[in-house]
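Hi, here's the filled form for the chain we discussed.

Project: internal
Contact: R.S.
Residues: 668
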Amino acid sequence: MEILVAASFPKLPLFPRISDGNRKSTRHQLLYCSRSGSTNDVDVHQNHLKSIGNEKEEKHTKIWQLFEEAQQNIQYLNKQRLLAMEELGRVKNENNSLLDRIKQLELKKDANVRKDKLTISSELLLRIDSLVLNGVIGSKEASDLRRLVMDSRSSLDDNLYDITSKSDAEFLAELRHFSNKSQENGFHIIHICTEMSPVISVGSLASYITGSSCALQRKGNLVEVILPKYACLNLNEVQGLREVEAEFYSYFNGQLHENKIWTGIVKGIGVTFIQPIYYSSFFSHEKIYGYPNDFERFTYFSRASLDYLVKSGKRPDVLHIHNWQTSIVGPLFWDVFVNQGLEGTRIVLTCQSFDSQCLEQPEKLSLCGLDPSRLLRPDRLQDNNMSHLVNVLKGGVVYSNKVIIMSSVQTKGQIVSALGHGLEPTLAIHKEKMVIAPSGFDKSTWDPSFDNFLPQSYNADDMTGKSVCKVALQRRLGLHEKASKILVGCIYSGIIDADLDKLKMLVLMACKRGGVQFIFMGSGQTSGMRSAFEILQDEVMDANVRFIDEYDEELSHLVISGSDIMLCPSFDDPLLQVPLKAMKYGAAPVPVHFGDSRDFGDDIGEGTKFSKYINSTFGNTSLGQAIDEFKNDPSEWNTRIKDAMRMDFSWDSECADLHISTYAGLKT
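And the returned structure, exactly as it came back:
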């Protein structure tokens, strides 16, 4: 029966219908035939069935193999699909990045094409200089044309900018026909200086020149700058740099020497670069300062700048000179140049500090055409302590109509009595012409409401973004991410042993309290400063302290915006302007040396607006007090922070106003 069940019979022919009575006998006959078949037939049949089973097993195996291969193929295809999607995403990101870059370049191109009025003014004035140097027009007409451009700044448009690319004759014809539609009473100021950011920068002078110049132009004045053409200039920051094809000679060491003149625009300010030919090595060094012939280098440049003013027919209201490097302009102007068309010009000297004055042998003054015998006198250039030498910075103080001393917190009395580095007697004599002005910061770059370096912008009315910046800073530096933690930042441009000891004490004290994190960043570090930071790092090793030994501009924005408190070695910080930026970004500037009166004079009433404000707010707050107020009185803390954010201590504020009032005082 088992065989019958498993057997597969061939299709039988049709049989005649069998009656019910015959069905039983027929079934018996079939069974009988099957049982009575030969043994060979059974074997053949079994072999046939076995073969069929093997075929089925082989088919089953092949099916599984195909299934496994299909699964592998599907997995491979899925993997390839994922890789393709990743590649597509990468390509899309690259494409978006390229599109953003193209958009930025187009915006930059549009910005370059559509000049602002101040840039147009500078371009026109530099082109007028070229006409004078090439003898196309005289100094009198050039002076009139400059005054026309200066007085008509409010009505300048892009169409007038287009004429700068025309020939001299076409340019002059259109400029002569340009209507003077409005009159403004601004000053024409020319800086003769040795630094200007971002073209060439060493110290605080560079940011001061650019920041104050831009602020003064925004207030309706016309500002130009004359610089040496150093080999290390960052010319990528100069728009429209071109060499003026004209011969220009200046006096030095008994002879006339040829120079190349280059002009361009930096941050909307017209800049003239003077490049000596015979003395080409003067400004081919890798550094700006620190060479044995610095007196000769900068005396050459100062004399060449004055020769250039006369040659180009410029008649500025103010010649603004800086530090000792261009102080020689003062005696040169009054002894040699004042009667060469500059009768209406006055001299203003700005000093970033008095710690570098340049003492030289008197006979060296003759290199630039001065008479040593007339100047080696106590009331002129003779040094107060070494009477056989001349003091170049003293000459700048004596021969200037006004002296601006850059200090955010020190008073005039404090500087005259104790901070003149040997010039105290001279400063006391000329005290009435001294003006104290605070440093500022560039609010076009440093403003949390539109700072591109921040993950989210914010302002005094909506501080949500500050918490985002704080967490982003913590994440970036591997600190515990929690907005309730008090984050204390500190950006240093220099460090001394006293600072190290104080910082170590402050960090250890705060870490014991708990809930406080510290971030230290160095700026412009020397090898000594690196060593100092390493010592501090070793002594205050803590999971809540981070050290960044290289200054990073982008990260500095995040440090200040993410910090609740900024430790300040001094509130007088002309190089980094950390206290000013901290207040703008909602971080409390707290003194490292709390209780130390080094920043404030005895009579705070005669200080700057900034010194009065900082002294009445954060100047009398220690780090411990700031931490306590942050934790225990958040309402009062937030009020103080927001009030500080709304203050304006940029270049456009007190600094620019004091400069304008100083210039105005020259007319009386």
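Let me know if anything looks off before we file it.
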